[in-house]
Design goal:
This protein is α/β, with parallel strands linked by helices. The chain contains seven helices and five strands; from the N terminus they run ββαβαβαβαααα. The protein has helices at residues 37-49, 65-70, 86-102, 116-128, 135-146, 152-160, 179-201, and strands spanning 15-18, 22-25, 54-57, 74-77, 107-110. The radius of gyration is 18 Å and the shape is globular. 39% of the residues are buried.
């Protein structure tokens, strides 16, 4: 492959949850009948080029796992079960994500499509890890980042976090989230709050011009959404300008 394709393409609906640490997307290659092997290869090449070290699958099947191995990407699978068993899976998933982030890994979390399940799991992690203080704020942050409303399934996953052993119950420094990731995320949560307050204050005034472009971020923490009505772009490798969310430089 040559030119832009040599570096791959951005996975569909890719979005940073914790900037430069944890991202989500639909299943690389597309979901269900839309899945294409060539597209999967290109998206995995992009992930590898951007420094992703591990793909975390929430699928009930083993789809894609062999493709991750072929390209040298570590993978872990946590199939999301029925609602009654959700806390059991989250109790295994969240400490693992916590440990990987602490170890400096860059993670992509996915299921078939970027829907309620992935939204709920990601929002639940922000709550469980104490990056965000309560469920409503975690849900709101996720809806703003992904520009879609979280449904009943996602909200049930966030609610299930209360039945998961807390992060405080994990003893020892090996369970501490990377300090930079936590600090960055907390800082950007404050920016999200300030942005919301400013939007309410200036609701009747023309929106100011964003000189840094839509989806601009100071490179910290929980990824900052663009103003409504704009399309976010991924900072792809040199020579590319396509994508759906703010990505790594």
């Amino acid at each position: 492959m040559r030119g832009r394709w040599a570096a791959g393409i951005v996975p569909r609906n890719f979005c940073w949850i914790i900037k430069d640490h944890l991202a989500v997307s639909e299943r690389p290659g597309g979901y269900a009948p839309n899945h294409r092997k060539v597209r999967r290869q290109e998206e995995l090449l992009w992930l590898r080029a951007q420094g992703f070290t591990r793909v975390v699958s929430l699928l009930g099947s083993t789809h894609n796992l062999h493709a991750y191995e072929e390209l040298g990407l570590e993978w872990s699978r946590f199939p999301m079960p029925a609602a009654s068993e959700t806390p059991t899976i989250l109790a295994k998933l969240y400490p693992s994500v916590h440990r990987w982030l602490r170890g400096g890994e860059r993670l992509l979390l996915h299921q078939e499509e970027l829907g309620d399940c992935v939204m709920g799991v990601a929002a639940g992690y922000l709550l469980w890890s104490e990056i965000l203080p309560d469920g409503p704020r975690a849900i709101t942050a996720m809806e703003r980042l992904l520009r879609r409303q979280m449904g009943t399934v996602g909200r049930m996953i966030v609610a299930a976090v209360q039945d998961v052993p807390s992060i405080d119950s994990l003893a020892g420094p090996d369970h501490e989230i990377g300090a930079q990731a936590e600090t960055d995320a907390a800082a950007d949560v404050s920016e999200l709050d300030a942005e919301a307050s400013e939007a309410e204050k200036d609701a009747t005034e023309p929106a100011p011009v964003d000189t840094d472009g839509p989806g601009a971020s100071d490179g910290t923490g929980v990824a900052e959404p663009s103003p409504p009505g704009t399309k976010e772009t991924v900072a792809a490798p040199a020579g590319e300008d396509d994508g759906l969310a703010t990505g790594p430089p």
